[in-house]
């Protein structure tokens, strides 16, 4: 009898210890969450429980007000410093949506026209078969310059890159097909901004002055060196099975280099946080903070910027996958039909995203420091959140 009691006591102690341990796990999840939006907290926490993320942030604006602004996990693999509201993150191609917003703002001000020839603003571009390229061709990945082969160090030299692009021949007749311009998109669009801006500012400075500062948010294309300490390094172990070529590992590691952070590579080196990205997209579709900050784009320009410019059914020429682009924005009508017509934004490599769903008047952003190798794995982080948001707003 005594043995049985001892055994029961040991089992009880083990169970209580296990329960206590489970309850004391702290994923450092902190921030703002309004009543009725607690489900985002639970889904966000799942990403840490399931080891999808080391550190991340998520934000939602609804009807122009911040309803979710959470950060959690760890700043880096050492797990000694929390990933918090002060943390910044490189967001890869999520940057392209901000570039698209900057170009749309230039169009709204009459500085650019989507239908105009690039040479109207940038005469040197009209060489070697690129003479008839339009601004919209550049914005919707139809320019025929999907990639560029230069040393990594040249990515940091804007003038050298632009000269190379001016001299390069297109891989297809501009405007006749589309294929994702992973890095060249940013340089091409950025040079258009620089050419038409009366102050001749770089794209990064234009974004800082005309969007970030005026909208009370942080988005850097060209990070001030004083802010480098805030940038959480990306972790690439999840990509190892996809990177058999050592040179590819070198390219990815380059994105943790402070020199790259401080340069302007607007196709993919924007640095921000989820709160700022969601705020930007909210400002693209309406006012925020009870009308204190006015929308960035008027309704007519937003319609132009988010009008489909890759014909329905046209596959990416090189990747042979389905993709839909407006003037720099990804269009999500088919990718995320639950968001309703007119949803737009941009995904970033490894799992970041920023988007707006005008039908439901909400915007959403997710950023993180653990890169994953497939779209399916990346989307597991945030797709359940989007689905639940729509479900709740439909009730």
Automatic annotation (TrEMBL):
Q: Which residues form a coiled coil?
A: none
Signal peptide per UniProt: 1-18
Task: Report the domain of life of the source organism.
Answer: Eukaryota
| One Pfam family from the record | Beta-lactamase
Which keywords appear in this protein's UniProt record, sorted alphabetically?
A: Signal
Instruction: Tell me yes or no: is Signal among this UniProt entry's keywords.
Output: yes
UniProt keyword annotation of Signal present:
yes
Q: Which InterPro entries match?
A: Beta-lactam-related, Beta-lactam/transpept-like, Beta-lactamase/esterase
Q: Enumerate the spans annotated as Beta-lactamase-related domain.
A: 46-376
Show the PANTHER family listed in the entry.
Answer: BETA-LACTAMASE-RELATED, BETA-LACTAMASE-RELATED DOMAIN-CONTAINING PROTEIN
Protein name as catalogued:
Beta-lactamase-related domain-containing protein
Organism from which the protein derives: Adineta ricciae (Rotifer)
């Amino acid at each position: 009898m005594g043995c049985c009691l001892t055994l029961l006591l040991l089992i009880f102690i083990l169970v209580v210890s296990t329960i206590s341990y489970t309850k004391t796990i702290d994923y450092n999840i902190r921030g703002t969450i309004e009543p009725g939006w607690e489900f985002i907290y639970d889904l966000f926490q799942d990403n840490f429980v399931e080891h999808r993320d080391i550190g991340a942030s998520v934000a939602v604006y609804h009807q122009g007000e911040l309803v979710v602004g959470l950060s959690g996990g760890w700043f880096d693999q050492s797990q000694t410093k929390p990933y918090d509201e002060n943390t910044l993150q490189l967001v890869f191609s999520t940057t392209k949506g901000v570039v698209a917003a900057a170009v749309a703002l230039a169009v709204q001000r009459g500085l650019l026209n989507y239908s105009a020839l690039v040479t109207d603003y940038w005469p040197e571009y009209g060489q070697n078969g690129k003479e008839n390229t339009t601004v919209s061709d550049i914005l919707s990945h139809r320019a025929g310059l999907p990639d560029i082969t230069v040393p990594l160090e040249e990515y940091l030299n804007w003038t050298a890159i632009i000269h190379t692009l001016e001299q390069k021949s297109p891989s297809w007749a501009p405007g006749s097909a589309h294929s994702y311009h992973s890095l060249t998109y940013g340089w091409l669009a950025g040079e258009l901004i620089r050419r038409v801006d009366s102050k001749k500012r770089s794209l990064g400075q234009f974004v800082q002055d005309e969007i970030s500062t005026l909208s009370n948010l942080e988005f850097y294309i060209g990070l001030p060196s004083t802010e480098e300490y805030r940038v959480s390094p990306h972790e690439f172990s999840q990509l190892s099975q996809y990177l058999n070529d050592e040179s590819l590992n070198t390219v990815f590691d380059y994105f943790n280099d402070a020199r790259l952070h401080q340069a302007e590579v607007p196709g993919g080196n924007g640095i921000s946080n989820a709160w700022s990205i969601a705020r930007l997209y909210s400002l693209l579709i309406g006012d925020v903070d009870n009308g204190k900050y006015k929308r960035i784009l008027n309704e007519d320009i937003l319609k132009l910027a988010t009008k489909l410019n890759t014909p329905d059914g046209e596959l990416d020429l090189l990747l042979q996958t389905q993709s839909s682009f407006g003037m720099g924005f990804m269009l999500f009508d088919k990718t995320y039909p639950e968001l309703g017509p007119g949803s737009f934004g941009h995904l970033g490599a490894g799992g970041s995203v920023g988007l707006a769903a005008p039908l439901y008047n909400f915007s959403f952003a997710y950023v993180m420091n653990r890169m994953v190798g497939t779209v399916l794995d990346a989307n597991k982080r945030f797709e359940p959140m989007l689905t639940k948001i729509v479900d709740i707003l439909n009730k």
